[in-house]
Write a structure and sequence with these properties.
CATH architecture of the largest domain: Up-down Bundle
Number of strands: 12
Number of helices: 12
Helix content: 40-55%
Order of helices and strands: HHEEHHHEEEEEEEEHHEEHHHHH
Length: about 375
């Protein structure tokens, strides 16, 4: 039996096994968008929460017809605000602050309709330090995130709430452009580290870096310098490409549908991984990195736009986020390359890590592609 046939059967078997399990695992991870503004000693907020998530949590579709109407949402305004605000706690300088709900609206985001909750935060006195505890959907969706934009002292700061970072403290009086730069840089680092699709795409390109395609087979590279130069070309190409589209999309010059972008990113991971098993671009992987890096840049941009861009210091935020992405990417390379080079001659690396690892990456990314293209959920990440 040929190696190609064995690989094809393995991929199909894994795909069927995962797809068979999808009804028990299906759920859609979500984000909410939280804006808090401090002005003239008063604190106000706006919270955009997806109606589909609220329907799952408290039930909005009263007649069960699968459609959530404005009347059904309006009838639940009290329940919506009570449910959401009960899961957000705020302290100013250590003292509890009261959250009071205001009016509600409905707005459209790229992934559907959201309720917009306006509220005020009443603290005993204007705070110099704000502590926020975020628990929305913590018991229903472990992948849910709260994207915060905090506006104080004329500057915007950002943060992402998750189960691992549910409690965060912000120094309001020390807000500065340097803090803003670091905030966006930090979010760039975390985005690449938590972006499994970006990580697997990068790994798919890095796995062959310690090997050389000779006589129609992969053989160990003789010198570390060869592997390092190969990685340098790949990382530089990927960085240049996604920096171009990240900037264009963030500045509003180019816009693509999020489903198209995310599906194409998943497809890029499949192709990059399969290229290791059935090499086509074995000597020009930097070209693959550049071409698909253009698409990944749109994925980076969607996160940056969701975080909220401070118009007064747009360039600063853009540069900070992009440098954060690069730092996160270089950390992955620095951890991977020395270990891979040391193991490159072993069967563990050549057959386990490289060959089977590439097939596994292709299977996972294939599931992502189906999820994103056809809007269902299998994998919990």
């Amino acid at each position: 039996m040929s190696r190609l046939l064995i690989a094809a059967r393995l991929v199909v078997a894994l795909l069927l096994g995962l797809v068979a399990a999808w009804p028990a695992l299906a759920h859609k991870p979500s984000d909410s968008y939280l804006t808090v503004q401090l002005a003239n000693g008063k604190i106000s907020g706006q919270w955009d929460v997806a109606l589909r998530d609220l329907d799952y949590a408290i039930g909005l579709d009263a007649d069960g017809d699968g459609e959530i109407t404005w009347g059904e949402v309006r009838a639940k305004h009290g329940d919506i605000s009570a449910y959401a605000l009960a899961r957000l706690a705020v302290q100013g300088d250590g003292a509890d602050c009261a959250l009071r709900a205001g009016d509600q609206q409905v707005d459209q985001h790229t992934d559907g309709a959201y309720t917009v909750i306006h509220f005020t935060i009443d603290c005993p006195k204007p705070p110099a330090r704000l502590r926020m505890s975020y628990r929305l959907f913590a018991d229903l969706d472990p992948q849910h995130r709260g994207l915060l934009r905090l506006e104080a002292a004329g500057l915007s700061r950002t943060a992402i709430f998750s189960p691992q970072a549910a409690d965060q403290t912000f120094e309001l009086q020390s807000a500065s452009r340097w803090h803003q730069f670091l905030d966006y840089g930090t979010e760039g680092v975390w985005h690449i580290w938590q972006g499994y699709d970006h990580i697997l795409f990068l790994l798919s390109l890095l796995l062959p870096a310690v090997l050389i395609w000779i006589d129609r087979r992969w053989q160990p590279a003789q010198r570390f310098h060869e592997a390092f130069v190969d990685v340098l070309k790949i990382v530089t190409s990927f960085t240049l490409a996604h920096s171009i589209t990240l900037s264009l999309a963030t500045l509003g010059f180019v816009s693509l549908p999020s489903r198209l972008v995310e599906s194409t990113i998943a497809a890029s991971v499949v192709l990059a991984a399969l290229n290791n098993v059935f090499p086509v671009f074995h000597g020009r992987r930097w070209m693959v990195a550049f071409c698909f890096g253009l698409i990944h840049g749109f994925g980076f941009a969607s996160v940056l736009v969701d975080l909220g861009l401070p118009q007064g210091t747009l360039a600063l935020a853009l540069v900070g986020f992009n440098l954060g992405v690069e730092c996160g990417q270089l950390a992955i390379v620095a951890a991977f390359l020395p270990v891979a080079f040391a193991l490159r001659r072993t069967a563990l690396y050549q057959r386990g890590v490289f060959w089977l690892g590439s097939l596994l990456i292709a299977v996972i990314a294939g599931i992502w592609f189906a999820e994103r293209a056809f809007n269902f959920k299998v994998l919990p990440f």
